[in-house]
Amino acid sequence: MPAIRPHGLARVLFWLAPRWRDPGWIAFALNRLTGAILVLYLLVHMVVLSRLAAGPSGWNDLLAIFGSQPFLVGDTLLIAAVVFHALNGARVAALTVGYGVRHSGRSVALVITGSAGLAALASWGILFR
Length: 129
Ligand code: HEM
Description:
By secondary structure, the protein is mostly helical. It has helices at 8-15, 23-49, 56-66, 69-96, 104-128.
C-alpha cells in the first residue's frame, strides 16, 4: 500500500510534529542549514575573488565593503555556522563509531553551547575589540 503523504497545512503541521523536538533532529536540521550556507558562501567567495582579475582599483572598493559593520556582523554569523557545522560533524562522526549514542541530547547541547561560546568569542574579537 502506498504511504499517505499530507498536503497543505496538514503537511506543515506534520513537519512541526513533536518528533522534530528530538535533539538529534534539531541538530540535523541545523547541520543541513549550515551546510547549505557554507556551499553558498563558497560560491560567493569564488565570485568575489574573481574581482582580483580586475586589478587593484576594483579590489580596493571591495575592501571598504569588507570592513563595514553589516559585513562584519555577517562574518560573525558565518563563523557561527562554520563552528556549528564542524562541531556537529565531529559529533556525527563520533556517533558512527558508537560514542554519544545514548546521550544524544547532551552531545547536541554541548555542540550548541560550544558553538555559541566560540561564535561569541569571535564576535567579540571582530566587532568589539
Ligand atoms: C570541519 C569541516 C566539516 C565537517 C567536520 C563536516 C561534517 C559533515 C558531516 C558529518 C555531514 C553529514 C551529517 C549527517 O549525516 O547527518 C555533513 C554534511 C554536509 N556538509 Fe559538512 N562538514 C565540514 C565542512 C563542510 C563544508 C566546508 C561545506 C560546504 C562547503 C559542507 C557542506 C555540507 C553539506 C551541504 C552537507 C549535507 C547536509 C545535509 O544534506 O543534511 N561541510 N558535513
